[in-house]
Amino acid sequence: MPQLVTDVRLSGSLARNPPEPMISSTRIARRVRQLGRNISSTYQDIDTPLVLVVILKGATIFAADLLRSLSIPAELEFVRASSYGSGTSRGTLKLANMVDGPLADRHLLLVEDIVDSGHTVDGVVRRIRRLKPASLRIAALLDRPARRDVDVKIDFLGFTIPDRFVIGYGLDYAGLYRELPGIYALS
Ligand code: IMP
Ligand code: MG
Questions:
Q1: pLDDT, tens digit, 9 for 90 and up, residues 86-117
Q2: In whole angstroms, what is the distance from residue 153 CA to residue 76 CA?
Q3: Ligand nearest to the CA of 184
Q4: Is 155 a catalytic residue?
């Protein structure tokens, strides 16, 4: 990515003519289908629908594709967790819109876009465990282990990436670029 632009017209033109991706949309689609198969077989014997607990907003695109690659019944719930302000440095973790549906005794799959320091997923996991689910696993599209602070066990992982800030396929920079079809590194 040549420069950081927050101008909507420039963002739009990048979406139409994106540069070389770190991970192409084709690779993402193939990997998400594999994850869908793995998840479906892991949960094939559960007797209630799986609940995908999607961490807003970055994981929405991944979750939409993942949901459609499952061959088992699944429901969708959302939590809002933000650890980033408007830039690339980490702020304080804020949790909101916690699911208030009955998650007790349900099989939950937390869906996250990227695990970086681990604080976001760790914070959400701690809160959700209090709801006494039957099981709780984590699916993450991306893992960036270079900046890990908190140990996080990712059960279903798309890709491990180097220490670069990335955008696209739901991931944003200052709220933009989520629409890019692949994953792109900001220079
Ligand atoms: P963590 O709490 O440090 O693990 O950060 C994870 C959260 O920060 C994710 O939910 C993302 O929303 C955001 N994040 C971390 N790295 C990136 C990135 O490279 N691009 C866009 N968002 C990111
Ligand atoms: Mg996020």
A1: 555 555 667 776 676 789 999 999 999 999 99
A2: 22
A3: 1
A4: no
